[in-house]
Amino acid sequence: MSHCADAPERAGEVTGVQVARIALIGNPNCGKTALFNALTGSRQHVANYPGVTVERKAGLFTTPEGRTVRVLDLPGTYSLRARSPDEVIARNVVLGRVASEALPEFLLCVADATDLRLSLRLALELRALGTPMALVLNMADIARHRGIVIDEQKLAAALGMPVVSSVAVRKAGMKGLLAFLDEKLSRPLPEPVAAADWQAPDRHGLRDLQREADRLIAVCVTLPAQTYSTTARIDKVLLHPVAGLVVLFAILFVMFQAVFTWAQAPMDLITDLFDWLGVLAAQYLPHGPVLSFIRDGVLNGVGSVVVFLPQILILFFFILVLEDFGYMARAAFLMDRIMGGAGLHGRAFIPLLSSFACAIPGIMATRVIDGRRDRLATILVAPLMTCSARIPVYTLIIGAFIPDKDVFWGVQLQGLVMFGLYALGIVAALGVSFIMKRLIWRKAQHDPFLLQLPDYKLPSPRSVGIGLYQRGKAFLHRAGTTIFSMMIVIWALCSLPLPPKDTVRPAIDYSAAAWIGHALAPVFAPIGFNWQINVALIPGMAAREVAVAALGTVYSISASADDPGHLGGVLAAHWSIATALALLAWYVFSPQCASTLATIRRETGGWRWAALVFVYMLVLAYGSAFITYQAACAFGLG
Amino acid sequence: MLRQDSLSFRGNKPSQAMTLGEARPGFSGTILAVDAAGVEGSLPADELERRLLEMGLMEGATVEVRHQGLIKRDPIAVRINGQASFALRRREAAAIFVISNI
């Protein structure tokens, strides 16, 4: 048996043991990912399919009888017609058309037992492919609780495939499925054959399939007399045209409050940890370039980025819990018309919300938007959402320049400025989308808005936990690679060439960084940036938050060794308020994130849209910083 | 299924074919036809029709309008066969011809 496993997975495999390849396929919201998590636990590996940014989730698990199984979690899909890149992958894998992916030997079609209509139609589509498969009735506990009785034997006979029920969120609920797999895999599976002559069903074909699915339900499923469900009761409030919006904004408010307040303690802890490591380094390392590299370059640089891990995790915690609860689709419903005024689709709400953590997962989340125009509009404005990488820059400058005083009723001026910067990003996003719609897509027609509103369910701590772990890992990975290597470059630029021995001026004045900063001065002088800022902007291209670390490096190397000083205090002494405000305005719009631009290129299939984003954001950044600086100078703040 | 439901009356002429795009919250009916031929949009009528079918909006299914948005009463949230809920805009809902269940 041949199998293609990734290197990280191979580590978990026992050589010489045959590994069965199975794939999970099902509608979105059927609990497929929960089932995948229940099967594999932490033995999963998330990567991308080659050439596309569709997430490839694979994992290994061992059955009770000791068989090792490799399971692939295919993207959710309603049919094999494949309308989005995700759905294309799901279809092509089961058709054996993905070069890097061996055809699965066995398919588990995962169905939501509380609503079989769409799942059964998909199962009928899959059955025609001829690959051995079984139907898994997931969330069987909820179905039973609602009084839905499914005659599994009758259904299995009518479908001509095994039917097993499961409860992915409970350990005991997986027993039946695991026993079934053990029984199934006790004999070798036949080598699968790709269905060569598959054709997408037309509207008549779809009707025939749905009619057959409805017939099966009529024969095999006993539905309870219509009851007023919990979901309907909750929706009375959450989907109410007015109350629903009030609740949505209350949730968003709590979310952003939490990002700032809950994160404070762990952030202080991380800062202390890196400070302590710096002190430790100074104790054990001889003074000189090595210590400077470790303390000023590595610890300062990486520490200033890792410190944002708590905020990112808290934001994603809310997003994952709300998603698992079933609320996110409701938010899209409530926001559709409101965002539609600015030319955005209701489904853009979730990607844009994720963009507050980081534009990259946000841009990747736009894949749920079927229409290309709607998707592009969302991608274009996602980088304007205030991502967590801007927070360090904002916090630093606000802390140093905006007085810490009450404006009215306990509202802090600093908080108000922060809120203003967030609001500016949102308003700009709506404005840009509105203008793009009129400039680029003048004649474009409306894309439809069709969205399933899944029944509410209690979020699974396990799914949320695994989701958070993956987000956190990705962020730390970035901090450990991209940002780490950028910090080395900055440190080198700021430290080399070495100053002459008997100078009184700070070492950095002789460095390559100073030269670059001075060379850029004429360009940035009209917006009030000095050469130190210019230097910090260059590494800031890798990631915005690096600019803070770079300013730290530039000013700590330029400060005398005995007086490292607090960065905020140092800046307040060196910059005018006009410069600080101009830098804030710059950071609301600046396209300073190479990873985001690379993601846009990948998702849109070319540099054209990435270039457009870069140019429009640069123009907005320079323009707004220019206006801010000149206005502030006119008010005597220069 | 004939069911007396006071909510179903609100704003709808009973026993008369209409489109789901015109239905008010509380409407409860049966789908008579799905035909996107007259619906303007970026998708060809055939494609929109298939997408609606893939959501289970098919002839014979019962449909109940549960909610509507704040602006221009759009979009709407519907329950199909009492089992699954979907959100769609009134523009696309105009492709679904329904008859009130009263």
From TrEMBL, chain A:
Alphabetized InterPro entries for the sequence: Fe2_transport_prot_B_C, FeoB_GTPase, G_FEOB_dom, Gate_dom, GTP-bd, P-loop_NTPase
TM region positions: 242-263, 269-286, 298-322, 342-364, 376-402, 414-436, 479-498, 510-529, 541-561, 567-589, 609-632
Superkingdom of the source species: Bacteria
FeoB-type G domain boundaries: 19-187
GO CC annotation terms, alphabetical: plasma membrane
Keywords assigned: Membrane, Transmembrane, Transmembrane helix
Official protein name in the record: Ferrous iron transport protein B
Native source species: Acidocella aminolytica 101 = DSM 11237
Highest classification ranks of the organism: Bacteria, Pseudomonadati, Pseudomonadota, Alphaproteobacteria, Acetobacterales
Automatic annotation (TrEMBL), chain B:
Region (Disordered): 1-20
Alphabetized SUPFAM superfamilies for the sequence: C-terminal domain of transcriptional repressors (SSF50037)
A GO MF term: transition metal ion binding
Keyword annotations from UniProtKB, A to Z: Iron
Coiled coil spans: none
Classification via InterPro entries: Fe-transptr_FeoA-like, FeoA, FeoA_core_dom, Transcriptional_repressor_C
Record's keyword annotation contains Iron: yes
UniProt feature, compositional bias: Polar residues: 1-18
Pfam families named among the record's database cross-references: FeoA
Annotated Ferrous iron transporter FeoA-like domain residues: 18-100
Protein name: Ferrous iron transport protein A FeoA
Species in which this protein is naturally found: Acidocella aminolytica 101 = DSM 11237
